[in-house]
């Protein structure tokens, strides 16, 4: 891991919930798991227990690092991590959100949120049942281990935390203030942070998020499948896909150029012939990123030197484009070849023609010419 990684826990948890993930990450990395006020080693602290307070505390931690860092947050901790990333966008090299509740809040009605608010006074059995409902595959031993954190919370703290993630923050009603690369991880069996919730209230706020689903895991994915989550975090931190996503997020030639080899070759369904060389390819990609109104990477896998990214995009006032990108890296981890496959054909041809209009100084032979 090139940069220190800072972990932010969620509701009913403390910094120890990340132990399994940290143990599965490369031993050479630097990892910092924080306690939010009122939790863990800070259980005796008084309020306010708000997103503003939590973000300010984590900002103190990342500022003490004195350099770039990676942020990982779970559930309401994902919202805290996003606020921190938005406050330090240049230093945040990436943002990993695990089963994230929307920063704008869930806005459950009183009868639905009250069972969460009352978990502090309800006792151990009620908290165990809540975890089992949200993470049906959570083993008894793991549930007991991480459940100790919830039992240390004062009832008024639990109520305040639940109100915090239910009410949300005003920043959640606008596009995210963090423009960098984002990895969204969801447990496939999470009945609370569902695929629909992520697709509708989380992913659209980011410029080009990568989405991964951990099958067989529920809301506490980091406790149920720590090795798998660690693998996803490490791949995101070190893979060429992060640099590729960063280019789309920042929509700049320089951002794309950082991940390219000097002799990189770009092939695409929108190009009649390949584009060669870092300068040319980064200009084409910057222009392409400007055409997309939204872009989401929905699946990612790696095999040897290749990374495969499946994506969905919207352009031209609402036209949906789908595709797969194949990135090939050299021994230094730089992208030497990018192959981008668009569909449907009509959208690809329109995209090609628009690229040609935006890049008049590149050879016209690269682009489709509309009649």
TrEMBL record:
| InterPro entries noted in UniProt | AB_hydrolase_1 (IPR000073), AB_hydrolase_fold (IPR029058), AB_hydrolase_sf (IPR050266), NTF2-like_dom_sf (IPR032710), SnoaL-like (IPR037401)
Q: Which residues form the SnoaL-like domain?
A: 242-337
Q: What Gene Ontology cellular-component terms does the record carry?
A: membrane
Q: Where does the record place the AB hydrolase-1 domain?
A: 6-231
Where, if anywhere, are coiled coils annotated? none
SUPFAM superfamilies to which the protein is assigned, alphabetical? alpha/beta-Hydrolases, NTF2-like
Pfam families, alphabetically?
A: Abhydrolase_6, SnoaL_2
Any one GO MF term held by the record is: hydrolase activity
Keywords, A to Z, come to: Hydrolase
Q: What is this protein called?
A: Alpha/beta fold hydrolase
């Amino acid at each position: 891991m090139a940069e220190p990684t800072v972990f932010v826990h969620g509701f009913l948890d403390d910094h120890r919930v990340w132990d399994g993930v940290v143990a599965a990450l490369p031993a050479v990395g630097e990892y910092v798991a924080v306690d939010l006020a009122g939790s863990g080693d800070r259980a005796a602290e008084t309020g306010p227990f708000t997103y503003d307070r939590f973000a300010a505390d984590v900002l103190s931690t990342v500022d003490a690092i004195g350099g770039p860092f990676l942020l990982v947050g779970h559930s309401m901790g994902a919202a805290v991590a996003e606020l921190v990333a938005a406050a330090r966008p240049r230093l945040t090299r990436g943002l990993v959100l695990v089963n994230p509740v929307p920063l704008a809040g869930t806005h459950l009605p009183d009868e639905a949120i009250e069972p969460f608010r009352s978990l502090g006074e309800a006792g151990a059995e009620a908290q165990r049942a809540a975890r089992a409902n949200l993470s049906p595959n959570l083993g008894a031993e793991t549930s007991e281990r991480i459940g100790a954190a919830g039992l240390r919370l004062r009832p008024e703290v639990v109520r305040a935390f639940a109100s915090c993630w239910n009410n949300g923050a005003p920043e959640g009603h606008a596009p995210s203030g963090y423009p960098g690369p984002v990895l969204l991880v969801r447990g496939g069996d999470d009945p609370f942070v569902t695929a629909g919730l992520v697709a509708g209230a989380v992913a659209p706020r980011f410029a080009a998020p990568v989405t991964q689903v951990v099958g067989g895991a529920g809301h506490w994915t980091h406790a149920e499948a720590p090795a798998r989550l660690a693998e996803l975090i490490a791949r995101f931190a070190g893979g060429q896909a992060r640099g590729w996503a960063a280019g789309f997020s920042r929509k700049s030639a320089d951002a794309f150029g950082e991940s390219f080899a000097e002799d990189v070759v770009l092939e695409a369904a929108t190009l009649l012939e390949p584009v060669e060389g870092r300068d040319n390819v980064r200009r084409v990609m910057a222009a392409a990123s400007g055409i997309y109104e939204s872009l989401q990477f929905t699946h990612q896998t790696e095999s040897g030197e290749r990374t495969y990214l499946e994506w969905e995009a919207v352009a031209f006032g609402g036209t949906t484009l789908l595709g797969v990108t194949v990135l090939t890296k050299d021994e230094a981890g730089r992208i030497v070849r990018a192959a981008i496959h668009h569909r449907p054909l009509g959208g690809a041809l329109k995209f090609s023609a628009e690229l040609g209009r935006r890049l008049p100084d590149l050879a016209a032979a690269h682009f489709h010419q509309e009649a």
